Amino acid sequence: MKKKEFWEYDDPKGNKAKLKTNAPELSFGSRLIRYLLIFCCVTAAATVIISMFCYFFPLQSASIAQSIQDFTSGIFQEEKKAIPSETPAVNPAETPSDSLAASKKAAASSGSSAPTQQATSQIPDIEYSSEQGNIEAIGKYEEIEESAPSYMVMLDSAMGPMLYYHQADARWADYLYGGRDPMRQYGCGPTAVAMLIYSFTNSPVTPKDIADWASENGCYAASSGSYHSIVMKSLSAYGLQVESAAGADLEAASELLRSGHVLVALMGKGTFTNSGHFIIITNILENGNVHIADCNSYENTMMEWELEQILSELKHSRDSGSPLWAVSYSEEQLNEWSQME
Fold first, then answer.
1. What pLDDT, in 10s, does the model give residues 221-235?
2. Angle at alpha carbon of residue 282, lines to 261 and 156, rounded to 5°
3. Cα 133 → chain centroid
4. Entry pTM
């Protein structure tokens, strides 16, 4: 094997003296193995550091991931929409036997001026209370109970009858959103949009179906619930029209409700939540108050609420169209139903 030569400057006059050593020169294969070992050690160390950061700082990690996702989305403006390839499987035992979409088509075929839906005989209407929502309860929000019944009730809305879902319903309360977070605590996003998708499209989904969809389409935030993008991404993917209404004042929000829209609201700390929570403002009453669909409280859903109070408690956020979105039927849906007449 060829010996490797080293140079030393140990001559008092500064002359370079060439010395022979017994250190063998490394072959190409040996150098390659050494570099691979160094690369693997550096990669392993980086992986450990990143894993520890994600474990101890889940909220910050989720925020960084969302920022990266928004940045890449801005680069690829022409990215194809994530449209479900097929209707998610639904357990018949978990949903009504009659699809609301079928009732909606029947109403359109009968010549109705708008594609309204009729509540099926198997699902009772909600019994609204004339009680005013307790706006003095700010900061006194209570966590949902560990056990909850199964809900099956219809709500009134500006778009027509809407099926109510509760995130702590016994049928999915303990289902792990993203494989790790129970729906009863982190499932308000999938539950809220599932109400709208089931009621106003041909897809009879459950909150579990939308939780799975959100996980597969980048809308699940570990230990935090859902990214705000779940509203626009999921509703548009299933065929509904959704646009940001962020910044809408009392007059603008009231007009949206009167013109056939429902509003998805991201609430901040206050009457409805200690951190963040999605609710649906379903319709506006003659006295100016509104009804809501709160997937975390059936009691809140039964009451009347001041729209101004709800708007004042919206979360201070402006990403992905938050904190307020206006939802309505899409042009494609309206055209489809008009052709059925």
1. 999 999 999 999 999
2. 110
3. 26
4. 0.65
